[in-house]
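Batch job 17 of 40 flagged for manual review because the log was empty.
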Amino acid sequence: MKNIEEKTYVIRKADKEDSRRIWEIRNHPIVRKYSGNPEEIPFEKHVPWFIKKYFSREDNRCFVLESRNENSLAIGYCRLDFNKELNGYVISVALDVNFHGRGLGHYFLNKILRQFGDEKNIFAEIKKGNISSIKLFQKNNFKIYKEDEENCYLEYKT
């Protein structure tokens, strides 16, 4: 992991005001390319989905990574969505593309797993073409348990 100054970054639970910034990050063409749904999502549809998904149910979680160097701008998000069939959480991590290549994905994922992962089953679904994400998750103790034509399915193993 690159040398990340912890005092420069804060990880916190998302609040309703983070909706626009999460939407901006998620709708960037590079992020959409590897998303389960590569379509651009209108902000008017994102807001009610975000509120319902993370503020009216206790089983889903959303965290943001803030950069104190950027006036506390949210530069990434991590979603943990409960899946009954898996009896666990499906994790999704995305960073503002301007912050790629700095080791922040590993920093963010590692901190979330330390905080959340020991007590829960956590799974990831990653497009096969997203080699950097597959490596990121494997570096953080995820193991591939299944593959299909498009995706690798990983499970967190402590």
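Reviewer: the log was empty due to a logging misconfiguration, but the result itself is present. Helices lie at 19-26, 29-33, 43-55, 104-116, 131-139. Unflagging and moving on to job 18.
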